[in-house]
């Protein structure tokens, strides 16, 4: 599993705004004989942070609008779809496509229309003055008249043996995405909050049997959701139980055979044969680096004005899962990526008109 938002470096102590801008061209560096990379300052009209469906779509629209966007790709270029296999619900493809392939196509399309993609991770941001300033893990600085934050969110995983190896081969963190592949099969959902209850409800329309596994003896989700779930005849519950391992089949193509469970009261260990495991213990938006810069909700999702991608800072926009804890789909991320580019374009045009844009 690639590192999540919590693994990203936090904002440094030194104020970005207090630092002098480095020259645009690479200057001689005192350590040059040691072959140390020299930090560079990148100046752009539009900085897009994140290279998932939201970031690439924003890049495509912005490049075609002549904004010459710069995309910082982060630790996982291509985003969450690079850790899945079949994608069957992204419009435009009659047959399932592979997630990594789809993201390569989006990247190629963004580059084809003129977006520049840089491999770096934004570790600090200062949106208090324009141009906005971000610093990469490489030491490079990014100065931008407008910014699109498209850093996504990371599903939480259990961290059990077999989970990583079987991700995309029976183990998933998204029922809307992968439930269809388990029509008429037996699946397990792990978790006890709203996510798990909603995932189990969704799956109960598709799977023959849904087994919800929770380490406590009751759900934490909204009562109305619980009532709906309890009323489903094909859903059963394993309380006070944890999943200790996802066990693979012996077939050449990896697939899930069963779960190893532990009953927390008795300590008894058992095997539960299942075709699919849906881990539904929440998501973490990748926003630690923007804390204090733009308004967020308690869970760290960036707040945007309804019907737009505008954040609390004029000129800073947010698209995709980083601002969406409801839909969390590639197509919705791409849709808001498009909106962010159009919002940014309008913002930059208005700024130019007002003569505010930095030289
Ligand atoms: C296992 C799995 C299967 C899925 N299957 C489907 C499916 O079949 N269909 C579907 O529609 N959706 C699916 N989804 C959901 C879909 O992947 C997401 O909704 C979508 O990827 C969100 O796109 P995004 O661009 O907002 O963010 P992400 O895809 O999460 O991309 C975030 C990007 O931001 C970058 N980033 C993060 N922090 C920084 C930083 N500090 N500096 C620079 N860059 C940074 C990352 O490197 C990454 O490139 C699936 C998700 C998972 C986990």
What does this structure look like?
There is one protein chain. Strands 1, 2, 5, 6, 7, 8 and 19 form a seven-stranded mixed beta sheet that branches. A five-stranded parallel beta sheet has the order 10-17-11-12-13. A three-stranded antiparallel beta sheet has the order 14-15-16, with no helix packed on it. With 359 residues, the protein is of the alpha/beta class. The radius of gyration is 22 Å and the shape is elongated. Helix content is 21%, strand content 25%. The chain binds flavin-adenine dinucleotide. Flavin-adenine dinucleotide binds at residues 8, 49-55, 72-77, 79-81, 83-84, 87, 89-90, 121-122, 150-153, 155, 172-174, 177, 286, 289, 320-322, 328-331, 333.
Radius of gyration: 22 Å
Distance between the termini: 43 Å
Query: Taking all residues together, what is the mean pLDDT?
Result: 89
- Please give the count of helices: 7
Sheet-strand content, in percent, reads 15-25%
Which bin fits the share of residues in helices? Answer: 10-25%
CATH topology of the largest domain: FAD/NAD(P)-binding domain
| Structural domains: how many | 2
Q: What are the segments in which pLDDT stays under 50 over at least 5 consecutive residues?
A: 1-28
CATH architecture identity of the largest domain:
3-Layer(bba) Sandwich
Bound molecules: flavin-adenine dinucleotide
- The CATH superfamily name of the largest domain is FAD/NAD(P)-binding domain
Shape: elongated
Describe the biggest sheet?
7 strands, mixed
- What is the CATH class of the largest domain? Alpha Beta
Structural class computed from helices and strand pairing: alpha/beta
Order of helices and strands: EHEEEHEEEEEHEHEHEHEEEEEEEH
Number of strands: 19
């Amino acid at each position: 599993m690639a590192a999540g938002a919590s693994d990203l470096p936090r904002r440094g102590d030194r104020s970005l705004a207090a630092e002098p801008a480095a020259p645009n061209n690479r200057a001689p560096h005192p350590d040059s004989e040691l072959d140390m990379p020299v930090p560079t300052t990148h100046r752009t009209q539009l900085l897009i942070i994140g290279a998932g469906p939201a970031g690439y779509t924003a890049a495509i629209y912005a490049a075609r609008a002549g904004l010459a966007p710069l995309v910082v790709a982060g630790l996982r270029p291509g985003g969450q779809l690079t850790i899945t296999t079949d994608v069957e619900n992204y419009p435009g493809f009659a047959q399932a496509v592979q997630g990594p392939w789809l993201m390569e196509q989006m990247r190629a399309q963004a580059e084809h229309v003129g977006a520049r993609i840089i491999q770096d991770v934004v570790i600090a941001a200062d949106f208090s003055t324009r141009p906005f300033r971000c610093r990469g893990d490489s030491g490079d600085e990014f100065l931008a008249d407008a910014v699109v934050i498209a850093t996504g969110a990371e599903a939480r995983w259990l961290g059990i043996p077999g989970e990583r190896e079987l991700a995309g081969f029976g183990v998933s963190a998204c029922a809307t995405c992968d439930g269809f592949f388990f029509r008429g099969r037996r699946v397990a959902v792990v978790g006890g909050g709203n996510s798990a209850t909603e995932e189990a409800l969704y799956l109960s329309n598709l799977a023959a049997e849904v087994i919800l596994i929770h380490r406590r003896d009751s759900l934490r989700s909204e009562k109305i959701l619980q009532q709906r779930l309890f009323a489903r005849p094909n859903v059963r519950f394993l309380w006070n139980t944890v999943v200790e391992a996802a066990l693979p089949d012996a077939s050449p193509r990896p697939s899930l055979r069963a779960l190893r469970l532990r009953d927390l009261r008795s300590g008894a260990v058992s095997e539960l044969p299942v075709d699919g495991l849906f881990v539904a213990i929440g998501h973490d938006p990748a926003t630690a680096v923007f804390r204090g810069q733009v308004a967020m909700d308690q869970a760290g999702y960036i707040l945007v004005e309804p019907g737009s991608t505008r954040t609390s800072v004029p000129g800073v926009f947010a698209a995709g899962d980083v601002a969406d804890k409801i839909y969390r789909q590639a197509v919705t991320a791409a849709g808001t990526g498009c909106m962010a580019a159009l919002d940014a374009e309008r913002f930059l045009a208005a700024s130019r008109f007002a003569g505010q844009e930095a030289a």
